[in-house]
């Protein structure tokens, strides 16, 4: 691995990208408003920037304009977030009046009908081009809010992880809540004192579901010794720092290696918890199963989340040393197990590493770079990852997954300002850095969310993300939900169980393009064992119906498309009949507004 300074050595093997979990974390480095970029997308009927095909969202840059294509409507304009900018002038059926956005990046509506998008699009699918295997592990879930064995969503990966797992004592299942609740020790992960049961319960569920499992290995110097929680804030009587000599009385020392023969039943009377013994304990029951190990959770935030244990900010060298040490432990104890390394949080850390020094690690012990991605797209200082379903937020959310790859998409967030008002292109950016610095390592997004789990916009964003993961070569991903999330589950059903009989997207991605990404996106697959089985996923971001011309290049001739669809008010896929071909392998499909469809070509 090459030596590099502040920046991408650690990003290639480390840090999470946007906000962590649904805990209270800053959306930007100083809590300021998002940068320019969302003004042109804010209202339910705002104008969209257009190219000659009515296509691209405007790039917000001082003095620039998003485009001038007009489709049917009056030429109202929506002011951009920066002085002198324009969010775009393309309107479909909207009124002429545009409302200026505020200097902080908020924006008003640009009309009273339609959403400023074109009413037609062309999808081109070529099954012999851009052929790439799809990792089965991208259809994963973090099980704190999602059920590992959901028979409809058919998750392929179940992840055990969140902040308390940094202090998890596998010997008795105690953990510390950290800053989220008074720094108290408690039984949040399991009431049971049976060793490892907080983990084995989930691994057992994963095995029954035919899924892989991700288990978190804590790397903090101490883990919780007891479950003696106290009162809620503001009293916080359970705060461990109120106990005398609390590191010795309320915690146990966490060690990578026991330094003695390992036992299946740990010694709960000593002062130590040993992670090699934990890995060996799991291997004794699951040696033939697909269990992956995540090296802690957002380690560079220990000083904020677990100040009583780690009061100062971890250094670059400390994080690297711990990851190497614990990765070696896993590999030495269970050689076949895969390791997810350097699981962290923070765009600025990923961008500059706070001028950390160079570091060269020995050997290659990390199998996956494990990143957390929570969209930083904002509207009026509110991020899309919440459950807000106002028209402006919906318009922002349905576009947000494009930041994962699209070189022509600029989201409304402070991150774009940090990049000099350039598109994020997260996955290509990370993959290039990993290839340059840690070749052969796989890329995973072990937490991700675009919010809106109870609204069709959440299904659109999630389905877009799942399609992108497969096409762009992400190797592992685990969604996170906030409470009930029927539309998030619906997105998984689109890819894993669209017909209620385990009908799934194929295992091989092929070329699929949309003529207008503002309006719609499309993904296509074949099966490695049966290239005649083509599955197309078509996503309509517009609030209005859109006519899609589907042009399919394939050795076989198909006479119709079977259609399954989710839409507003309908979170589970429902069969919609068939669409006949208009000519050889050409079809015309009318997509309802805000919908996700599976198109299944049939002879």
Structural class: alpha/beta
- Supply the CATH architecture of the domain at 8-21 and 135-173 and 191-221 and 272-496: Alpha-Beta Barrel
Task: Give the spatial strand order of the biggest sheet.
Answer: 3-20-21-22-27-24-25-26-23
Strand content: 15-25%
Tell me the total number of β-strands.
Answer: 27
Question: Notable features of this structure?
Answer:
single chain, TIM Barrel, Immunoglobulin-like, 9-stranded mixed beta barrel, 19% helix, elongated
Explain what you see:
The structure is a single chain. With 603 residues, the chain is an alpha/beta fold. Among the domains are: 8-21 and 135-173 and 191-221 and 272-496, TIM Barrel; 121-132 and 508-602, Immunoglobulin-like (Sandwich), CATH 2.60.40. It is built from 12 helices and 27 strands. It has helices at 8-13, 197-208, 246-249, 275-286, 302-305, 316-333, 347-352, 391-400, 414-418, 426-437, 456-472, 486-496, and strands spanning 78-79, 86-88, 120-126, 132-133, 140-142, 157-159, 175-176, 185-186, 212-217, 222-224, 251-255, 272-274, 291-295, 338-341, 368-374, 378-379, 382-383, 442-449, 476-479, 508-514, 520-527, 530-540, 546-553, 560-567, 570-583, 586-591, 595-602. It has a 9-stranded mixed β-barrel. Strands 5-6-9-13-14-15-18-19 form an 8-stranded parallel barrel. A hairpin with a 2-residue loop joins strand 24 (560-567) and strand 25. Helix 4 (275-286) packs parallel to helix 6 and helix 11 (456-472) runs parallel beside helix 12. Residues 1-113 and 352-363 have low confidence and may be disordered.
């Amino acid at each position: 691995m090459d030596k590099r300074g502040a920046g991408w050595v650690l990003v290639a093997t480390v840090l999470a990208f946007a906000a962590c979990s649904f805990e209270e974390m800053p959306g930007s480095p100083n809590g300021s408003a998002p940068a320019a970029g969302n003004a042109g997308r804010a209202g339910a009927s705002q104008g969209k920037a257009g190219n000659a095909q009515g296509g691209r969202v405007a790039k917000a840059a001082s003095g620039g304009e998003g485009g001038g294509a007009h489709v049917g409507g009056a030429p109202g304009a929506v002011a951009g977030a920066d002085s002198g900018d324009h969010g775009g002038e393309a309107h479909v059926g909207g009124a002429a009046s545009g409302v200026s956005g505020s200097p902080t990046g908020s924006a008003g509506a640009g009309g009273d009908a339609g959403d400023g998008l074109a009413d037609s699009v062309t999808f081109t699918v070529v099954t012999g081009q851009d052929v790439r295997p799809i990792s089965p592990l991208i259809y994963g879930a973090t099980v704190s809010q999602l059920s590992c064995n959901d028979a409809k969503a058919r998750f392929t990966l179940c992840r055990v992880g969140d902040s308390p797992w940094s202090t998890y004592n596998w010997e008795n299942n105690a953990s510390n809540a950290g800053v989220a609740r008074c720094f108290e020790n408690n039984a949040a992960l399991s009431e049971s004192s049976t060793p490892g049961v907080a983990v084995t319960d989930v691994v057992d569920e994963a095995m029954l579901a035919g899924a892989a499992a991700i288990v978190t290995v804590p790397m903090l110097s101490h883990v919780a010794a007891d479950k003696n929680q106290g009162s809620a804030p503001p009293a916080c009587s359970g705060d461990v720092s109120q106990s005398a000599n609390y590191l010795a009385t309320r915690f146990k020392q966490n060690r990578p290696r026991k330094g003695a023969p390992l036992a299946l039943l740990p010694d709960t009377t000593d002062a130590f918890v040993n992670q090699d013994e934990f890995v060996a304990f799991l291997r004794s029951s699951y040696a033939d199963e697909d269990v992956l190990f995540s090296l802690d959770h957002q380690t560079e935030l220990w000083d904020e989340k677990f100040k009583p244990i780690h009061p100062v900010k971890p250094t670059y060298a400390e994080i690297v040393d711990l990851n190497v040490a614990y990765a070696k432990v896993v590999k030495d104890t269970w050689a076949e197990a895969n390791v997810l390394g350097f699981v962290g949080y923070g765009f600025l850390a990923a961008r500059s590493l706070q001028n950390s020094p160079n570091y060269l690690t020995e050997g290659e012990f990390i199998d996956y770079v494990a990143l957390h991605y929570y969209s930083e797209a904002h509207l009026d200082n509110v991020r899309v990852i919440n459950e807000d379903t106002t028209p402006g937020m919906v318009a922002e959310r349905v576009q947000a997954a494009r930041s994962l790859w699209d070189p022509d998409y600029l989201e409304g967030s402070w991150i774009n300002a940090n990049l000099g008002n350039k598109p994020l292109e997260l996955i290509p950016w990370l993959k290039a850095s990993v290839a340059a610095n840690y070749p052969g390592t796989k890329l995973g997004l072990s937490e991700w969310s675009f919010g809106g789990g109870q609204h069709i916009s959440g299904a659109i964003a999630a389905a877009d993300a799942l399609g992108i993961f497969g096409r762009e070569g992400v190797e592992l991903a685990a969604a996170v939900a906030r409470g009930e999330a029927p539309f998030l589950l619906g997105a998984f059903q689109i890819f894993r169980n669209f017909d209620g009989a385990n009908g799934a997207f194929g295992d091989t991605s092929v070329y699929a393009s949309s003529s207008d990404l503002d309006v719609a996106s499309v993904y296509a697959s074949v099966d490695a064992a049966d290239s005649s089985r083509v599955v197309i996923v078509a996503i309509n971001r517009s609030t209005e119906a859109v006519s899609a011309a589907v042009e399919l290049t394939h050795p076989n001739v198909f006479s119709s498309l079977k259609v399954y669809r989710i839409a507003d008010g309908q979170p589970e896929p429902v069969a919609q009949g068939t669409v006949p071909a208009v000519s050889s392998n050409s079809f015309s499909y009318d997509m309802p507004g805000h919908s996700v469809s599976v198109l299944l070509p049939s002879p």
